[in-house]
Amino acid sequence: MTDHERPGAAADAARLQQAEREIFARRPEHAIDPTLDRIAALASLLGDPQRTYPVIHITGTNGKTSTARMVETLLRARGLRTGLFTSPHLMSVRERICVDGEPLSAGRFADAYDELKPYLAMVDDSQPIRLSFFEVLTGMAFAVFADAPVDVAVVEVGVGGTWDSTNIADGAVAVVTPISFDHERYLGHTLRSIATEKSGIIKPGAVAVLAQQPLEAAEVLMHRAADVGATVAREGLEFGVTRRDLAVGGQQLSINGLLGSYDDLLLPLFGAHQAGNAACALAAVEAFAKPTATGSVTDGSDTPPSANGDSHGPEALDEELVRSAFAMMSSPGRLEVVRRSPTTIVDAAHNPAGMAATVAALTEAFTFTELIAVVAISEDKDVSGILDALEPVAAELVVTGNSSPRSADPAKLAEEASAVFGPDRVRVVPRLDDAIELGVALADEADARTSDDGGQPGGALLLITGSVITAGEARLLLTRAQPGDPAPGPAGPPHGD
Question: Least enclosed by CB within 10 Å: which of 67, 214, 229, 327?
Answer without folding.
Answer: 229
